[in-house]
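Hi R.,

Here's the chain you asked about this morning:
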Amino acid sequence: MGREGGWFEQPQGEPVDVGRWQADEEFAVYPEGARDKGLLYSPDPSPHRFLVPNHRYLFKHAFNRYPDQFWAEIIAYRMGCLLGVAVPPAFVAWNSTTGVCGALIEWFLDYPGEPGERYVAGGDIMASMIRGYDRKGGRQHNFEAIERYLTVLERGGQLGDDWLTWWCDTLLFDALIGNTDRHQDNWGLLWTTDGQARMAPVFDNGTSLGHEICPSKMPGFADTLRRDRYIDRGTHHMRWHITDKTRAQHVSLIQRLLEYSPGLREHIKNRLMGFNTETIRGIIIGMTEFEIPIPLSPVRAVFVCRLTEARHQVLINALTG
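And the predicted structure, written out as tokens:
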């Protein structure tokens, strides 16, 4: 069942050097998404106790426009653990032969000694349901279609997870980190050979945490009104209904979910009350101690902490009353 959601501590003095790691022959350069990335195999034995030996990892490189965006993946993993959401482990990494930095994200398939699973992307599901589905833009990506599909699987006894709670957790997590890129290919199902499915872990979380804000503008977000306006403008990739003209605002999407299933309110309250902002602040500030060519700057670390604390309070105010 993988290690998603597990807490695997990476000491500050142990950034992972992937310079001599073996590339996956089939996917030396991983084809999905906008950022450069490659699939690599960890050494066996592993030089780090927090890694799985001879297992695939996705190395997401620094991106030219946003060179430190990969830090969002790493921070989001820790935030997911604290929130209780199944996020694949993500570690600080770099390539000593090229100087390239990135997030090293654990592949959630083909763990040693575990039954094989086949991944089916949400985009394939949407395309099977909606004729002429716009796979590139995802304008028809909507919750109501997902609900119909997963309900059929659940009633047929094929879906082992509580898919509604999974989506509740995922939407809450996306709202907390400000993720705007949970598109149709950033969620999916894992199928076993005997025809049973489960929801895949919550992966690809880097378009979040204010990654696009340049350092010179970060101090201005100490202003509460500016910060609140920025948070309120954040939208999920998904719409509630296929005919909605715009993407749903993060909090509004969860409120629609609560109208659909009011019993989720107590679950959301427990998740939010269990998320300690002081703990995540200490973790984020501690990450500035990693010594790699593109470090997490103290300015960005404080900025991410402020955003997270503000989003957490917005969610508490809007969803737990």
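The chain has nine helices and nine strands.

Let me know if you need anything else.
M.
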